[in-house]
Amino acid sequence: MGRHKAIVLAITMLAVGILSARQADAQTFRTYRCADGTQFIVGFYDDDKRAFLQIDGAPVTLGRRLAISGTRYSGAGITLRIPKTGPTTVKHLKRPVTTCAVVDKPVL
Known about the structure:
1 helix; 18% helix; Lipocalin
């Protein structure tokens, strides 16, 4: 009887582990090219309000900020604005604000 209970317990624990395993977070990646020649990649995750950028060869995490229209992310001297209408803009380092557009096929 002890062996039978151990097998049933092991199967139950395995089934619960498989059923409760969390799926990988859904994610969205976009590549942008800007008017000044800057190119960057931004990633968004469903359960995270931050934006994850790869810009100028360095990874940067931007926190979501209050915006009147659309969304705005900023941090580490970089501001990314994604309005509901109009072009996306980025301001990084001491460069002026520049407009950016999504690139279908990024140039490596």
